[in-house]
Amino acid sequence: MLPAHCHHRIRVAEQADLAAVRGAAAELSAAAALDEEAAGRVQLVVSELATNLLHHADGGGAILLRRLDVPGGVECVALDRGPGISDLAAALADWAAPEPRAGQGLGYGLGAVRRLSERFDIHSEAGIGTAVLSRILKQGTKAAETAFECGTVMLPMSGGDHCGDGWFVRPDGLVVAVDGLGHGEAASIVARRAETIAGGAAQSDNPQTVLAAMHDSLRGTRGVVAAVLRLTDRSIEYSSVGNIAMTIIRRSGTTALTGCWGVVGYNAVPPPPARETWEPGDHLVLHSDGCTRLADTFLVRRLRHVDPVLAAAVLLRDGGARVDDQTVIVLRNSQRTSVATGSNA
Predict the structure, then answer these.
(1) pLDDT-based confidence at 93, cuts 50/70/90?
(2) What is the rounded CA–CA span in Å between residue 104 and residue 112?
């Protein structure tokens, strides 16, 4: 069973896959307690995006869906490795035909997807592919006021029903990323426990203290690797054990953040917190070892001004290193209103 803050990945390669996308979207809409109007918008959005994958992406693509607890809603990301969109302005024109047009989706278009969404972004590159983000939220919900924007995509190992990665990002600036050793249900159980313990220790301002609480609680389990960070609008304080990758991407270059080797719950000695500065416009990218070289990919794909959720999805699409649970977190230093969600948000 996938946790709520994990994305469901539905491959879209043939007409029959549309039913699976709509069914998953309906289940998540019900779980998020969306009203009829919002749930209807979810269905229109996922139907249009999935149909576009069939008609315009070479070999189809994938729809990623997850329930949003804070604020309540459904998040949808469409990913493909097709030819890209040569004229984004035309593709985003908001027209609404009464009947579907051959080869052009359901007759609503990406412009209508944008209009139906509380949050929308698109990234397309010739010969690389297209990624589209849509979020539909409960009526009356409001994003959290923070000094940073956050986007996360977490996926289980291909074909898996459990995810051994874990994360949460809170509006007060606490960031936790974990990766349970191994795969499957056992790794998922320890990852969920690590998230719970970290959330319970979150009253501490010291990332080392949070890691130490996780280490004590996870003794006797298979353990996790983990990174805990405390963000402000000017600094990043962090303590890390294992191979969670962390990189600050600045206008002037990149800075890798390092911790110590070990396993939380087994042989870890959580290191004293280190500190780095970051400025408005800087990004912080974290990822588990299912992905690699994401800082380089971030720069090559020109993701600096892309919505962090969509940036995380593009990084995962193009930076997947091996068959494994995969998590990518992208944080942008910003004074704008943003949404920070996760298992304990």
Answers:
(1) confident
(2) 13
